[in-house]
Every structure is written in C-alpha cells, then in structure tokens.
Amino acid sequence: MKNIFDAVELKNLHLKNRLIRSATWEGLAETDGSIGDDTYKIYHELAAGGVGAIITGFTSVATNDFYFGGMMRLSDNKLIPQYKKLVEFIHAENCAAISQLALGAFYDKNFVEVPENNLSTENVREIIKMFVDAAIRAEICGFDGVQIHAAHFFFLSRFISPLINHRSDEFGGSTENRAKILLDILRDIKTSTPKLHVTIKINSSDFTGGGLNENESLEICKMLEAGGIDSIEVSGNGTSVGGIKAGVNEGYFADFAARLADEVNVPIICVGGWRSREVMEKFLNQSNVELLSLSRPLVREPDLPKKFLSGESSVAKCVSCNACYRTPAHRCIFSGRRS
Ligand SMILES: Cc1cc2nc3c(=O)[nH]c(=O)nc-3n(C[C@H](O)[C@H](O)[C@H](O)COP(=O)(O)O)c2cc1C
Questions:
Q1: Which of 82, 133, 200, 261 is the most buried (most CB within 10 A)?
Q2: pLDDT digit string (tens) for 56-112?
Q3: The predicted structure's pLDDT at residue 232
C-alpha cells in the first residue's frame, strides 16, 4: 500500500514523502532575476510546511526573456549567491530543491520575440546551451535537481508541438525531430551535471486542434526514457482548472499519468487538482504513479502536508478560484500569505 508519507528514492534524489510543490511563479524577482527576502520567506515557509521537494517557479535560462514579469533567472553567474541562499532556506527544513528551467520566448538583440520557425539552427543550439549553462549554475547553487519546463506552451512546449513547429531543419517535422531539442538538452545536462536529478514537466496534450496529443506525448516520453530522464511530471494546457472539488473532480491529468506510468519505466509525478488525502492515496494505489505535485493548495496552505500528517486536516482549503494568478506575489485571497 502506498501512503503519501512514504519516503521515496529517485535517481540522485531522496524524498521524505510523495508530495512535491509543483512550480509556481511568484513574480517577485527583479528584472535581472535577483531575488530577496520576500522570496526566501515564501520558500522557507513552504519547506517548513512539509513537502518532500519544492520545484521553484519558472526560472528563465536567458537574461533577455521578458515573457512573464518577475521571473527568476539562472542566466548569469552573478545570480549564484542569491539562489544558493534560496536553496539553503529550503534545505534547512529537510526538503529537496529543484529549479524549474524555462524559456518563455527567444528575444533578439533588439528585444523582439523571434517566432520558433524563424530561429536559425544556430539559435536553437544556443538555446540548448542556455539550458545546460543554467543547470550548471543550479548545481553550483546546491539544487538537488532541475526540471526542464516543456509544458503550458512555454518555448519548449511550443517547439515540440506540431501546431507551432513547422521547421524544415533537424529540429522540425517528425515527432523525433521536434523532440530533439529536449533530448539534446537532457543529454548535455546529464553530461555536465551528472549528480543532479533531471526531471521534465510536459503536456499530456495541448488540448487544441493540431497540437500535441496524448499519443504523441507518450511517444516523446518514451524517447525521454531512452535518453535517461529521471522522472516526468505530467501536466497539460488548461493548466490550472477552476472549480475543483474534493472527491468530485480531482486529478484531471490522472488518466494520462496512469497510462504513462504503465508504459515507461520512469517515476511519474502527476499534477493538477489534487485536493484530498483520500483521493490522492486511492489514485497512487490504483496506478503506478509514484508522486503527486500541488501548486494552488500550497499557495493557500503552505503547511498542508504537515496538516495531513498530523490529522489536523484531510482536505485542502483551496477552492481553485485562480485569483492567485492575479494577486501580488500570487498570494491566496483567502489566506493572505504575508511578505
Ligand atoms: C500562481 C500560479 C503560478 C504558476 N506558475 C507555474 C510555473 O512557474 N511553472 C509551471 O510549470 N507551472 C506553474 N503553475 C501551474 C502549477 O504548477 C500547476 O501545474 C497547476 O496549477 C495545477 O496544479 P494545482 O491544481 O495543484 O494548482 C502555476 C500555477 C499558479 C496558480
């Protein structure tokens, strides 16, 4: 029987339980990616709340990527001391730290966004190197792992989508060619930082006509398995579904995650709408999925895992209203996380 509080051993990563804070953008970083006390406080509170690992909010691998405001960055060595401190706050509470490496979009020297199909092959190789350099910085900072963000129509998610990628070079066309960017990033990160756990967040489906569908996502996950990925977090476009009710409509990517866990020999993390301990454990026991990740419930209650463990609570208070997307520092409008 699986219990959410089982310790789990993954490649290069020990987790004290099966609960992971899924990447959640706080929007608190300065334009250059600098972070300070408000960010440290949020991450320390989350770590103290009992999750097994925290995946940081998306952390851009580029200095000139302005896709979202307040993005963290690991694009420059000068940022290393600040992110090292972030990791220390997380580790102080016996929690693992994973940096979510992302690219919103590629911008040229004049800060103009370059569409995926207009990038030269050399630009694509440059992007691969930016991910690898950021992973090297993450390792220097002390992170236990990195997550390649290939979901939610961020750059990599668009790049692997047949709806967007119409390139005619080695990085476009067939599924294999579109997935090559992920496999090259994975290969080079594993070579450069062999001690890091390397995970990926991927769309189960783009949920849009002509986009990545479940069969193709599964095919790409099998390629990632062959490339040595250490775990896969299953998500999808339509990322943060509203109106989730405990025991009614939890775990909206669960079917694909379970199917994937049956087909690949890689630990699967399933995100999306987990709200009650009972449903979470039922799903873990009815599938080969190993880990569950949460975002909004931990915005409202960073100490939810501790409440589950003590028995103080068995259901998250989050009502999935999505107001946290629009508040300063993405606080919950009900609990008002202080900074
Ligand atoms: C305020 C906010 C910020 C988010 N930022 C990120 C992010 O940086 N990277 C990411 O992959 N997903 C991000 N997400 C999506 C969550 O990680 C998660 O996939 C989604 O909300 C579903 O999980 P939940 O039902 O537990 O919230 C964010 C969600 C919210 C609400």
A1: 200
A2: 999 999 999 999 999 999 999 999 999 999 999 999 999 999 999 999 999 998 889
A3: 98
**Which portions of the chain are predicted below pLDDT 50?**
337-339
DSSP string, 68-126: STT-EE--SGGGHHHHHHHHHHHHTTT-EEEEEEE-S--B-TTSPBPPGGGS-HHHHHH
Answer whether 324 contacts ligand 1 (Cβ < 6 A). Answer: yes
Q: Is the CB of 294 under 6 A from ligand 1?
A: yes
Q: Is 60 in the pocket of ligand 1 (CB under 6 A)?
A: no
Find out whether the beta carbon of 272 lies less than 6 Å from any atom of ligand 1: yes
Quick check: helix, strand or coil at residue 317?
coil
The position carrying tokens 């599938």 is: 287
Nearest to 128 by CA among 179, 165, 86, 167: 179
By most ligand atoms within 8 Å of CB, the mutation choice from 20, 25, 71, 319 for ligand 1 is 25
Residues 24, 239: Cα–Cα separation, whole Å:
12
What residue owns the CA closest to ligand 1's atom 25?
273
Ligand 1 center from residue 293 Cα (angstroms): 10
C-alpha 28/C-alpha 41 separation (Å) is 12
**pLDDT value of residue 55:** 98
Ligand 1 neighbourhood includes 325 CB (under 6 angstroms)? yes
Domains detected in the chain: 8-330 (3.20.20.70)
DSSP state of 114: P
Cα–Cα dist 133/121, whole Å: 19
pLDDT at 339: 41
Residue 202: CB within 6 Å of ligand 1? no
pTM of the model: 0.98
CA-CA-CA-CA torsion for 323, 303, 103, 140, nearest 10 degrees? 160
| Distance from the alpha carbon of residue 97 to the mean position of ligand 1, in angstroms | 17
The C-alpha atoms of residue 6 and residue 36 are separated, in whole angstroms, by 33
The alpha carbon of 121 and the centre of ligand 1 are apart by a number of angstroms equal to: 31
